[in-house]
Each structure stands twice: as structure tokens, then as C-alpha cells.
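Folding follows sequence. Below is one example:
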Amino acid sequence: MLLLFILSGGYAWICRIVPVFAEELKVLTVEEPPSSFLNDKGTPEGFSVDIVREIQRRINNHDPIQFVSEIRALQTASKYPNVVLFSFTRTKNREDEFHWIMLLMRKPWVMYSKKGSNFNIKNLEDAGKMKRIGVVRGDVRAAHLEQMGFTNLEMVATHEQNVKKLLINRIQLLFYEPQGMSFVCGKLGIRMSEFEPVLKTKPSEVYIMMSKQGTNPETVRKWRDAGRMIKEDGTFQSIAEKWSKIIYKQNRIVCEVKNGALDF
């Protein structure tokens, strides 16, 4: 607190100046490489991490990025104000619950089987007839299948667990995505050729979003304005191109910027 002495009309007035601090934010994400992950040094890294850090730099926000489970992140943002989430899929059920800050990516959802299983999967209804489908608890893909009435879901805590289970035939199918599947296989030392995609669904759109109830509209505006400027001044394009090269070099997956998002 600062004290300010003001002389006026022969009198000395003492005023208190109380500093105004920016509201503290919880900035939450999930382990979803190459969008967001912890590197070997335990530091947040990834395409979406770079975008979020650039927004933070522009609005002078220094709150740390924290990794939590998807279900915990969503619960936190539903209950409390001033929570930033990334990278999360925009769905009909989530539409009115959050402020949607910025579109980041479009990526497909894919059903994987063990190589040589010869499953005839033409649509999700066919997948529903299988014995077990591996999904992660709280993941948007799990929620999508649950809403469709699937009763054959094998819930686990991480994608790594599902990849291991698929490898030893503990599950028949795994519902995931190409870039994440490639990263997890590399991390576990498992060849991607052990698996094969049997069904590809329509792409999902992945966003930065913010809790709605109680969050200051000015905070939302600052994040949205910074996100818009990042796209307008070419920064988004530069970061996306950097990660496109990394992703292709490491995983041989082609992605490019289309209509304001990194398309896989």
C-alpha cells in the first residue's frame, strides 16, 4: 500500500493508493500430445501450449499451466470462475456451459484394432457390437459413445493403458486419434504397425475455452482479442507451421493450417 500526501488549500491530505491486481486464473490442460504434454524435463510443451503462452504474454498473464485429468478439468471449470481450459472439443452439450475463446485444431476420431483382427467395422453401430472398446474416463470420445447408448466401454485413466490393453487383446477396439496414438506408441516403445485404423469419424473442433459462471467479461474479452490478433498478424500460422514440421518428422502425420485451425 502506498501513501500519497497532497497539499490543497493549505491542508495536507493523506490518501491511500491500493494496487489493483489482475484476477488469478487456473490454466488447465490434459496430456494430449502433440497439442499439450509434459516433455522429458517436466515442462509443458506442444502446439496448443505455445498458443496459450503467446496469449498470456500479450495480456501479461503469468499463471502456470497445470495438467489434470479431463474430467477434473471440466468439473473445475463448471464449478468455479476464472478457469481456462485447452485443448477441449466443442460439443453441443458443452456449448452453453463455457466461453469459447479460440479455435485451435480439427482432428479426426479413429477406431483402432490390433493388426490382422479383420473386424468389419463400417460405422459406430458396428463398433457397438464388439465386446470391449477402450476409452479414457471423462474423455469426450467416451462421452460421445455413452450418449449413443454404448454399453461395451472399457474405462481407464490414460491412453497408455488402452494401447497396452489393445496390444495384448484385452480390448478389441480403441477409440482415439492418429497423432495421440503415434505419440503414445513412441513413448511406450510399441510399433504403430501393431495396430490398424478400422473406422474414421468426422473431425472434432478443439478450442481454448473459459468457465462461464462468475468469470469477469473483461477477462474473456482480453483472451479473445489476443487470440484474434495472433491469427491476424500471422503468429498462429508460424506456430502451426513449426509444429507441422515437428509432427511430420516424428510421426509422419501430415497437418496444415486451414480456415483458422491446424487440420489433421
About this structure: The two ends are 51 Å apart (CA to CA). The chain has eight helices and 16 strands.
